[in-house]
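Handover notes (outgoing to incoming on-call)

Open items:
1. ABC-2 type transport system permease protein: sequence verified, structure written out, both below. Nothing else pending on this one.
2. Nothing else urgent.
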Amino acid sequence: MNKFMTTFNLTFFSKLKAKSFLITTLIIIAGMFIAFNLDKIIGLFDSDDEELRLEVEADETFLSVFEPTLQSYDETIEIAGEDGDAVLDIVNTDPLEAELRMNEEISSSQEESIKLALNETNRAYVLQTLELSEEEISRMYEEVPVEFLVASDNESGNFEAADSDETNILNMIIFYFSVILMFIIILNYASQIATEIANEKSSRVIEMIVSSIRPTQHLMAKVLAMISVSVIQVGLITGGGLIAFYFSDTSALLDQFGLETNDQTLKIVVYCIIFVILGLILYLSVAAMLGSFINRMEDLQQGLMPVTFLSMIGYFIALGAMSFADNIAVTITSYFPFFTPFVMPLRLLVNDTGHMPMIIGILIMIITIIIALSLAGFVYKRSVLSTESGIIKNIKRIKK
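ABC-2 type transport system permease protein structure tokens:
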């Protein structure tokens, strides 16, 4: 046990103190702080519009409609009786035509506000000429209530309310963030763990290692150390994101982009964290097994191709299957252990899948992880002192 912990601590702390680990983690956390304070950062570089005194050449009837409308769009514009910075000349009211003369150019936002106010005033004039009552005008702006019904599963002929296809934007962001983060960390740590194992096997260091510790014990210590480091990195990034969210005034930003939590948000967060951790453990276990076949560093990328391809397929399914997440093909792939961490949260996001499919997916992954770790230990034990130059030759030798 002491030898196991010695190997574990050596690998764990060397990776934890590595510059790549610290820099990557800090960059991602800094990116989240920037994202949560984006409105403030933009405000630092975005100079406020200067006050504009606008002189309007029109009758009192037009001004009574136009002035409050313009104020609702832009508070930096003030209607002036005379000596204004710009002159808005109403050339015609039927149809409404206007000309804006100014000494200096005004900001694009102020130009847009004047256009919007003129359009709104024009609509008011048109409605007035139609001699519609206030009730008729309000009815024109009312939304038409539509109820979408779908036939019930039984044969009663009744209909029930259809599920809304609208996906919560905040939940979608959480899902995409977890999938992208998992994909990046898998590729990073899978390469690291395979490189560590292959590098030891390609040098004489392995002869001294196996004389002091059992090969399987040595491999498991390295695998668990790498898994622990990857899980800590996920935890630091998640914690950093929560701190950034807590200490930032995100209410205005959330309102601006229409981001709000619902009864599904907590469930998505919990399951995304679980599947990210299990996905990392599974792929790193497989990477360790593949690294055990490699004796030369030249064969490393070729040996890791299965991990790369499987993670890429799962990643692209998760990103591209949003519009048809209820398809039977997506359901089937969600139970394939290498795609489960990518696809199962997608089903939860779009279809609000129940807890049972999630639990089944988690159990499938745990069983696959146990098998992968057992195979990795078996392969490493049989090939630790092998000098075969090819991966295929190593596989044939192990099978004998």
